[in-house]
Write a structure and sequence with these properties.
Oligomer: single chain
Keywords: DNA-binding, Transcription, Transcription regulation
Number of strands: 2
Radius of gyration: 22 Å
CATH topology of the largest domain: Four Helix Bundle (Hemerythrin (Met), subunit A)
Largest sheet: 2 strands, antiparallel
Low-confidence stretches: 1-6
Strand order of the largest sheet: 1-2
Distance between the termini: 30 Å
Structural class: mainly alpha
Strand content: under 5%
Mean pLDDT: 90
Protein name: FadR/GntR family transcriptional regulator
CATH class of the largest domain: Mainly Alpha
Pfam families: FCD (PF07729), GntR (PF00392)
Order of helices and strands: HHHEEHHHHHHHH
Number of domains: 2
Length: 244
């Protein structure tokens, strides 16, 4: 983006609306001012205001309820919006599937180390439940995928770094290899479960060294498996259509 170019009026209004949401401590489900009030407050035309609101709706900041008594309602953006933006950027760069694994290999060991020092009791419980559920339903690939995603998601947020939390949420949305034809047979699921248990034990024991090394080995094992069994998939370009 050219930083010297004046920002579009609709974007400036969108920023003001977001600042007002924060300033007034609006919560999910709260209504914003009706259109006639916003037009007066922001001193813009109806077309500009509606463009601002449509942009915020696309970003997940608000929803627009139609009809009498409707209008903008406060929502909470999630990582799906970040995932979509990342996918579009990666698609236009023709980035391969392996680039996501390389990113995870670089970041997730650090997340595991931080989580071992910062995790709270609730997230530790969630992590334990994820491991237990995967073990109890190891024959069910659907449950395996669900608990695998939950495990990595909890660790990212337990790192205490919000950027890591949203980034891993987005990467996990992109990385679901099943949409590219990647299969996880039961013996492979068992290997993942064993590694999850070792990572959980290290985090529960506040052992950052072991947590970091176990996560590094976990991502490396997954990478080796995909390189061996699905080499063409690893080289496939990421496209928007691969996310369900």
């Amino acid at each position: 983006m050219n930083r010297d170019r004046p920002q579009k009026t609709a974007m400036l209004v969108a920023q003001r609306i977001v600042n007002e949401i924060s300033r007034q401590n609006k919560q999910v489900g709260d209504r914003l001012s009706p259109e006639r009030v916003m037009l007066e407050e922001y001193q813009v035309g109806r077309g500009t205001l509606r463009e601002s609101l449509r942009f915020l709706e696309l970003q997940g900041v608000i929803s627009l309820k139609p009809g009498p008594g409707g209008g903008p309602i406060v929502e909470k953006p999630d990582a799906s919006h970040l995932a979509t933006s990342l996918i579009l950027l990666l698609q236009f760069e023709q980035a391969p599937f392996r680039s996501i694994l390389e990113t995870r290999a670089a970041l997730e060991p650090l997340m595991a180390r931080l989580a071992s020092q910062r995790i709270d009791a609730e997230r530790l419980r969630q992590l334990e439940e994820s491991v237990q559920k995967m073990g109890e339903h190891i024959a069910d690939q659907g449950v395996f995928l669900e608990t695998n995603k939950s495990f990595h998601d909890v660790i990212a947020w337990a790192s205490g770094n919000t950027v890591f939390g949203f980034l891993v949420d987005a990467l996990l949305d992109i990385l679901d290899g099943t949409v590219l034809g990647v299969d996880y047979p039961e013996h492979r699921r068992g290997t993942v479960l064993k590694r999850h248990r070792s990572i959980y034990d290290a985090i529960a024991a506040s052992d950052g060294d072991v947590a970091e090394e176990s996560m590094r080995e976990h991502i490396a094992e997954m990478t080796r498996y995909l390189e061996k069994k699905f080499a063409s998939t690893m080289d496939a370009s990421i496209t928007w259509s691969v996310v369900r």
